[in-house]
Amino acid sequence: MRIKSYYARTIEDAMAQASQELGPEALLVNSRKAPPEALHLGAYEVVFAIDAPPAEPGESSQGEALAVSGFGDRLSADVAELKRELEGMRRVLTRTAFGPAQWPGALPTSSDGYAALTAAEVSPELAREIVQGAESRMPAARTPAARTQPRPDGTAFQHALVEELESRFTAQPVLGRGEAKPRIVALVGPPGSGKTSTLVKLAVNYGLASRRPVLLLSVDTYRVAAAEQLRSYAAILGVGFQVPETVTALAQAIEENRGKELIFIDTPGLSAGELDDSSGLARFLATRPDIDTQLVLSASMKSADLTRVVDSFQVFGPQRLVFTKLDETSSFGPIFNEAARTGKPLSFFANGQRIPEDLEAVSARRLTELILNNAPGRSRSAA
User: Fold this and answer.
1) Is residue 124's pLDDT more than 50?
2) Is residue 316 part of a domain?
3) Contacts of 192 (CB under 8 A, 6+ apart)
4) What is the C-alpha to C-alpha distance for residues 82 and 322, in angstroms, rounded to an integer?
5) Strand partners, 2
């Protein structure tokens, strides 16, 4: 007779695991709350027994040769069984480590989804809402009878999880506000976020590549030679370039170049302590209905730092979020956190230093694939 214990958050989940592994002939021997030393495996322990198949009588005349020949098969079977048990332990430990303390009635697949989201640094509260939302998209799996059945179809739950993720944010890879010409785009953000290189990538991909007249404006007079860097890019690209030194000069430059189709404004990288010094520029950008202000952020920033920066740049009135340096991180949950928290659309991803190649228009599916660690090839489609 074979006896085995199963641990889970509920007795029903433990019985479902036993039924799936041992089959319908398994006999419930005992059930109890897990002892303190085993609480990390689950809140309840259930013990099942099943009759082992009787051993077939062997021919003793075959001697040691038969015993040796069967040793490899038994060893392989033992190793396979050990692997199955280790995989079961891994799943239990993963659910314990990442799952919420109390989650009554959760589906067996829910903890795996929650673990994947939190491992990508999606905030725990948001991850739980998403998983529960995915559950609600599978009403058949929520019936009490389903709890005693084998694990629900993982593919169906994965599809529901993707749908729920995509419903929580907006992808809007566009430049400008409305259809009015010219389309004016200002990039703002903290130092080192990659505003200037992103601006050049946008100018090439959505200006020169479409044969649209482009003008680059730099109001970055804080950094030494900052404007000269953009001037060099403009000379290489063969596009217009100006350096307005005041807000009044900026407004005049825009009015004088209404014949352009795209006007890009590069702004200084501002830390939290420098934002007050740019209050005039912030007011100008926030109150101009024809300027599309987009906040450029590094994807490698911690979630708490992202929240602080996004909130501090609200004075500029950004309409969309641009994320750079995707090649420097493997955790994309913070991007999702901010998009879901602020409701601001995501427009573009920059995933390297090459100009103009390392730029992609954001799509809902692209971000969900990044979060779930299944990113496909890059997308270059854009508005």
Assistant:
1) yes
2) yes
3) 269, 298
4) 48
5) 50
Domain membership flag for residue 311? yes
Residues 6+ apart with CB under 8 A from 102: none
Q: Are 105 and 132 in contact (CB under 8 A)?
A: no
Output the CA angle 137-142-148, nearest 5 degrees: 140
- Band the pLDDT of 257: cuts 50, 70, 90: very high
List the one residue out of 171, 235, 168 whose CA is nearest residue 200.
Answer: 235
DSSP string over 339-371: HHHH-PPEEEEE-SS-TTTSEEE--HHHHHHHH
- Does some domain include residue 301? yes
4 found inside a domain = no
pLDDT at residue 153 above 70?
A: no
The CA–CA distances, whole Å, from 220 to 191, 278, 321 equal: 11, 11, 20
For residue 108, say if its preceding peptide bond is cis, omega within 30 degrees of 0.
no
Residue with tokens 């954001």: 362
* CA R_g for the chain: 29
Q: Which helix (H) or strand (E) holds 70?
A: helix 63-98
* Structural domain containing residue 327: 183-371
HSE at residue 43, side-chain half, CA atoms within 13 A, is 11
Tokens of 330: 């493997």
Span between the terminal Cα atoms of the chain, in Å: 67
> Cα 137–141–147 angle (5° rounding)?
150
CA torsion 190-195-196-200 (nearest 10°) is 180
Residue 127 to residues 111, 155, 339: CA-CA distances in angstroms? Answer: 10, 19, 14
Note the pTM of the prediction, 2 decimals: 0.68
CATH number of the structural domain spanning residue 261: 3.40.50.300
Number of domains forming the structure of the chain = 1
